[in-house]
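As described in the Methods, two query proteins were run sequentially through the folding procedure within a single session, without resetting any intermediate state between them. The first query and its resulting structure tokens are shown here.
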Amino acid sequence: MMRRRILCWHRCARSIEGVAEGVATGTGQRHHGWRYRANVALRILTGTIGAYLVAALAAAMLARTLPMSRAEATVTATMIAYLVAPGVTIWAFLARGPWRALAGVVMAALVLGGGVWLAGARA
């Protein structure tokens, strides 16, 4: 049992050394092309700007449609929007592709924007 642990530790230490050497010399790093970088960049933009847009539209729609006083509806809608924004960001990184993530966020923004437009201004 002891010999097995020593061998396992030796293998683990050797693999860690290899990783450290690769990072230090730059040989162990994977080189990603422009497609991979564009994929990540589009997901980051979708996850940040798209999340802000969808959360703002969700807050606006809920503030106009919740059956409460104006101040209570605004506070409640804002708190719910704080839950929507991370969901949109997570969706941006879980979608199969960056264009599918962008399409999902745009569709959500269009639906919520339509809801805001249909709800109109509160009296």
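Immediately afterward, the second query was submitted; its sequence and tokens are:
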Amino acid sequence: MAAKSSREAPSPSSKMASLDRPLHAVGFEYDLLSAEKVTGHITVTEACCQPFKVLHGGVTAMLAEGAGSMGAYIASDFKRVAGLQLSTNHIRAAGLGELVLVEASPIQKGRTIQVWEVELWKINPSTSAKVQLLSTSRVTLLCSLPSSKEMKGFEDNLKKYCKL
């Protein structure tokens, strides 16, 4: 997980760009996808900063909902999920150029409701060690909803990267 320059745009050829276009647009990449844990990373660039050159709170919320939803989708046997509640507490800021780790894990994996806890950590780019907790979020999702046939291609693509 090498740090990108603060101005470098995400690679359009990323193998996982099709998994979550809004997250990919701000430079996020998934590292681990499973029903028990979802992780990924983002380098804070100008594309995801507020004017004060720190990670935008709305991007933090989008990262949390994206990671929690992806985990819930996998945990519900690739059935559609829909967000019901998102609550985020911002603890510290991440500045331009810093590397951020996103970790999502389930608190409750019911058949119809799942709750995921998502933490964002500032990490040391040379060791990948967690340095400071940036935010915590709780994502509540309605699960096992019917999916359209068009989702089959997405499901098949996602399964290539999942740890099942």
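Residues 1-13 have pLDDT under 50 and may be disordered. We note this only descriptively and draw no conclusion about the first query from it.
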